[in-house]
Amino acid sequence: MTDLLEQYYLVQANIGEWDMSKFSLEKFQEFANLGGHIMQHADPGNGFIWAAGTGFYGDENVTRVFNNPAIILNLSIWRDLDGLKSFVYSSNHLLALKSAKKWFKQLDERVYVLWWIKAGDIPTIELAKSKLDLINSIGPSPLAFDFTEPFDISGRHY
To answer: What is the CATH number for 59?
Structure first.
């Protein structure tokens, strides 16, 4: 199992939809500053491998794929579920999660998804969208899952 894990990494994708009724340059700057600060704590020693810069904020490709200019996307790759969980529930990131309603609409669907990817592959915006669509249509599965119902690379529940 260890050899197999070394050939695959965990991808996380999450979206937010700006609440345009609350949007301002100041709020955007507050969010961007916090995001930059949080990503400084993404440590390779704790399993972090890669992130799409500081995320796709106002990216025309995200707008095209999601058909919504208010959607932002964050993509990152992690060595394993434990490293990602540790990062997500750290104090800095937890503060952002608790503050999300200041910036984003409350969506009636899952806004994040996890899946395994071969080491060396980089996830695309289109793949992230398809994984979000999958988990929102059928729920967690070995192909698209979340923290509440994770799967290992062999497709078994954690």
So the answer is: 3.30.70.100
Q: Which two tokens stand for residue 62?
A: 């995200």
Model pLDDT for residues 98-153, shown as the tens digit of each residue: 889 989 999 999 999 999 999 999 999 999 999 999 999 999 999 999 999 999 99
- Model confidence, pTM: 0.90
Provide the domain count of the chain. 1
Residues of the domain holding 103: 2-138
156 lies in some domain: no
Span 27-59, pLDDT tens digits: 888 888 888 778 888 888 889 999 886 566 667
